[in-house]
Amino acid sequence: MGTADIIAGDTPGKRILLMGNEAIARGAIEAGVRVAASYPGTPASEIMETLASVAPKLGFHAEWSTNEKVAFEVAAGAALTGVRAITSMKNAGLNWVMDMFMTIVYGGVRGGFVIAVGDDPDAHYSSNEQDTRFAAFYGEIPCLEPADQQEAKDMTRFAFELSEQLELPVMVRSVTRISHASGDVELGAIQKLDRKPVFDRHWKMPYRWNVYGPPGAVEKHRWLHSRIPLAKKAVEKLPWNKLELKGKPRLGIIASGLGASYAREAVRRLKLEGKVAFLKIGTPTPLPEGMVKRLLKAVKAVFVVEEGDPLVELQVKAIAKDANCDVEIAGKLSGALVPVGEINTDIVADALAKVAGIKLREDKERELVRAEASKLVAPRSSTLCAGCQHLGSYWALKQALRKAGGNVWIVNGDIGCYEQGGYGLFAKAVKPSFSTESVRYLIDTPYDTLDTNYIMGGGIGLMQGEFHAGYKDGAIVAVAGDSTFFHACIPAVINAVYNKARGVFLVFDNSWTAMTGHQPNPATGENAVGEQAKVLCVEDIARACGVEFIKIVDPFDLKASTAAIEEALKFDGFAIIVSRRICTLQAQRKKKFVGKRIIVDQSKCTSCGLCVSLGCPANTYKDKKGGIDPLLCNGCGMCAQVCPTEALRAE
Amino acid sequence: MSEINLIIAGVGGQGSILASHIVATAAIRDGLRARVGETFGAAMRGGAVASHVRIGKEVSAPLVQKDGADIVLALEPLEGLRNVVKFLAKGGMLLTNTHAWIPTDVNIGRAEYPSMDSITKAVEKLGGKIITIDATSLAQQAGNVRTMNVVMLGAFAGAGKLPVSIETLKQVVRENVPPKTIDANLRAFELGFDVVKQK
Question: Residue A299 belongs to a domain with what CATH number?
Answer without folding.
Answer: 3.40.50.920
